Amino acid sequence: MPSTERYDVIIIGAGPGGYVAAVHAAQLNLKVACIEKEPRLGGVCLNVGCIPSKALLDSSEYYHLARTSFAEHGIKTGKISLDLPAMMARKEKVVADLTKNVRRLLEGHNIDIIQGTGRLAGADRVEVAAENDKSRKKDTRVLEAKSIILATGSESVALPNIDFDGKRVVSSSEALQFNAVPKQLGIVGGGYIGLELGSVWLRLGAEVTVIEMLPTIATGLDGQVGRKLQRVLKRQGIQFHLDSKVTGAETTAKKVKISIDCKGETESLSFDRLLVSVGRRPLTRDLGLEEAGVKVDPDSGRIQVDASYRTSVPTIYAIGDLIAGPMLAHKASAEGVAAVDCIAGLPGEVNYDTIPSVIYTWPEVASVGLTEEQVKERDIPYCAGTYPFAGVGRARCLGETDGFVKLIAHGKSDRVLGVHIIGPRAADMIAECGLAIQFDARAEDIARAVHGHPTLAEALQEAAVMARKC
Ligand SMILES: Cc1cc2nc3c(=O)[nH]c(=O)nc-3n(C[C@H](O)[C@H](O)[C@H](O)COP(=O)(O)OP(=O)(O)OC[C@H]3O[C@@H](n4cnc5c(N)ncnc54)[C@H](O)[C@@H]3O)c2cc1C
Fold first, then answer.
1. Distance (Å, rounded) from C-alpha 347 to C-alpha 339?
2. How many other C-beta atoms lie within 10 A of the C-beta of residue 249?
3. pLDDT per residue over 101-138, tens digit each?
4. Residues with Cβ < 8 Å from 461, sequence gap 6 or more?
5. In the 8-state DSSP scheme, what is residue 303?
6. pLDDT tens, position by position, 14-70
7. Is the CB of 332 under 6 A from ligand 1?
8. CA of 43 to the centre of ligand 1 (A)
9. Which of 20, 24, 47, 50 to probe ligand 1 with, by most ligand atoms within 8 A of CB?
10. DSSP SS3 for 72
11. Which protein residue's CA is at the shortest distance from atom 48 of ligand 1?
């Protein structure tokens, strides 16, 4: 009979949702255990998501700049060549350092880190199975808690007619660690993961083709921004097959051949590697949800929660990629904090109107709030102001003049409803816009706030001025 250990909160999963929730709970003096099946903490985000992808995006951008732009700045570098193993080793070091930091953070807060696979064993119990290092058998222990937070995240979805084989047909995890630059890389799915990884391998020398079922890439973006992004990526060399559905695939030792259907026309394409990035699904397999009585949305597979992140079982909570909303790390972390606040009897909530989303292509794309299409659909009177980076001194100094800021304000109250940026360092600029929406700012507030000169943020200020003139 396994022994039982007791906690205030048990968290299953140590991704950005789970580990942030664990730290917040410990800071509120709760006794916390965090269960993680992988040896490294940090979840998808730190290990095979946000961080390794950004490390490669940054390295590949440097490589690209060295080859294409250094001469214009008067820098002579001789022959530039790629050392892919060194680039991968750097990425791995960034990931390793950050995941070690997370472990230190949890240990520093006296959180019990328990390695093993967690499964609900009732409303207040979790069974953890871990492989015994010596005997190689599964050891099981049972933990008990007043509250349990499920934070097990998500996994890549395969196409119905093509399974991942990890070599020719891969998910984003493998596309972050190819040992050679593919000559021809096919990407099924024109969402942010496909576009970011496509940008990495394009800059490193691959021929990149994106196949997207819908008529546009990165659906959900403000239309004007989405169209600009597609034009820029096409100019950089990415080929797009839109309105195109993959109908079949055939893999050989060296190639993967797919057939696509574009509005009734069939075409055949051949690649060295095929990245399938058509979405992610919540990782709820073997969590014991049904036995515990935790309800799941039958269409999306996401766990249903109320405004306090409570599932259909009042002692069990769920956050992050497991529940509705955008699958983003900062959304998961915000929900982790809010769920713990609710458990502790404090007011805990997330303002979903201010969650930014970013695509780390170059130029970057970042947005927060409503798009022009959404404002129109809701019949909200609005004024939109746009300002190009070409009109900003700092962008000219950088040699990065592609793109613009678009600010949408309420037509009557002047309240900021949304900001959409395509341009250099858009990811960093969007923070001010989220804050503006959080504080119910008017376009006039941004227009009157003195922005440093020369900065990229002056484009935002000018877009706010333009929105007031419409
Ligand atoms: C290539 C890629 C790039 C991305 N880039 C970004 C980005 O730039 N910005 C951004 O905001 N988001 C990005 N994301 C999305 C982001 O990674 C996720 O939204 C985020 O990690 C979700 O956090 P989470 O805590 O809900 O789950 P996860 O990060 O998935 O963590 C869940 C953890 O639970 C563990 N686990 C699962 N089942 C069990 C179990 N039964 N027992 C114990 N442990 C278990 C898993 O091993 C994992 O460590 C990216 C994703 C990918 C794939």
1. 9
2. 21
3. 999 999 999 999 999 999 999 999 999 999 877 777 78
4. 446, 447, 449, 451
5. B
6. 999 999 999 999 999 999 999 999 999 999 999 999 999 999 999 999 999 999 999
7. yes
8. 5
9. 50
10. helix
11. 43
